[in-house]
Amino acid sequence: MSTDRETTRIVRSWLEEGVTALPDRVLDTVLDQLPTTHQRRSWWPLRRFVEMNTSIRFGLATVVVLAAAAIGLSVLPRLGFEGPGVVVTPSPSPTQPASPFHEGSLAPGRYRVHPLETIDPTLAISFTVPEGWRGFGNWALISDAGTSAPNGTGIGFLSAAGLFSDPCHWDKDGDGSWPRTGDISVGPTAHDLAFAIHYNYEIIGPRSTVGQDVVLSGYTGKRQDLTMPSDIDFSTCDKVAGQADGSYLVWGTSETNGNDLYAQGAGQRWHLWILDVQQTRLIVVMDDYVETTRANRAAAYSIIESISIEK
Q1: Considering the chain, what is the average pLDDT of its residues?
Q2: Separation of alpha carbons 309 and 311, rounded Å
Q3: Tens of pLDDT along 116-146?
Q4: Would you call 199 helix, strand, or coil by DSSP?
Q5: In this structure, are residues 153 and 147 in contact, taking their beta carbons and an 8 Å threshold?
Q6: Contacts with 75 (C-beta within 8 Å, 6 or more apart), sequence order
Q7: In degrees rounded to 5, what are phi and psi of residue 246?
Q8: Structurally, how many domains does the chain consist of?
Q9: Listed range (30-44, 61-75, 244-258, 261-275) with the worst mean pLDDT
Q10: 26 and 134 share a domain?
């Protein structure tokens, strides 16, 4: 049965190329739905099929690929990956009331936060927090691993007022004042911001993917990824008045309390959901690193999937 195992290996190899890799549970689901006779299933590589001729075997491989792709499209958005067309992140049906969000350690449960208090105080976001997370200000969550390299993880709810043409040297006035708007003006919609990020940072600044259509909690927008430079010493960047360390800032903010996100380390990745929430543009950002553990990343995506936006 080594040929059957090789067929399975080829299918898995095909699925694991690029960012659209499917986890074992997806391929298992596909294979479980095909007419097979199980001989052993204690571990995926030992999966076997009944004896069959070569033409049937290759036909089955084709069916597995097509079925896996079909099922994968429905699973990928739940893992935060992007496929063609609109990426839909499911909205939850909360079964428990949300508690007020607060700084410090958060017990597992559902919380509600008002992150844009001076821009849109009517906007509220509810989400379910697993064990191992803490609140930061009125706009962010941080895993117990922190947000620094090499394996930190965090989630923030932000606004953006213009981009900085040079995220490391954003202090054009030389006074370190904050908050401030970026020196590149950007239109008011999610599309405007996603386009501006990708267009302006093709050469300098963080690497950006093209924004794809997304739906989160019933609101449409753009799903986009940024990767911070790995060859910049962020300590050499401009400093916010009163702070000892430099800040690498992608966009500005008009939020009075200055809520904003700066790069926490070289190679940090920002996964953005930029949404049009009626007349307010909301950014939901999840940040991680290549070495962030699978468990921390899965916990962060579970929080994103549980989001309910209220206006």
Answers
A1: 78
A2: 7
A3: 999 999 999 999 999 999 999 999 999 998 8
A4: helix
A5: yes
A6: 22, 26
A7: -70, 155
A8: 2
A9: 30-44
A10: no
Q: Which two tokens stand for residue 277?
A: 């929430």
pTM: 0.71
**Cβ neighbour number for residue 284 with a 10 Å cutoff:** 26
Which distant-in-sequence residues (6+ apart) come within 8 Å of 158 by Cβ? 115, 139, 253, 255, 259, 260, 261, 282, 283, 285
Residue 165 gets which letter from DSSP? S
**What's the pLDDT at 68?**
41
Helix, strand, or coil here: 49?
A: coil
Tell whether 172 and 295 lie within a shared domain.
Answer: yes
Has residue 86 been placed in a domain? Answer: no
- Per the structure block, which two tokens stand in for 191? 């599309």
Q: Which domain holds residue 142?
A: 99-310
For the record, the structure tokens of 95 come out as 């079964």
Instruction: Give me Rg for the CA atoms of the chain.
Output: 22
Q: For 93-123, how does the pLDDT look when each residue is reduced to its tens digit (9 = 90+)? A: 555 789 999 999 999 999 999 999 999 999 9
Query: Coil, strand, or helix at residue 11?
Result: helix
For residue 88, tell me if it sits in a domain: no
pLDDT of residue 298: 95
Task: Summarize the confidence of residues 32-56 as an average pLDDT.
Answer: 34
Give CA–CA dist 23/165, Å, rounded.
39
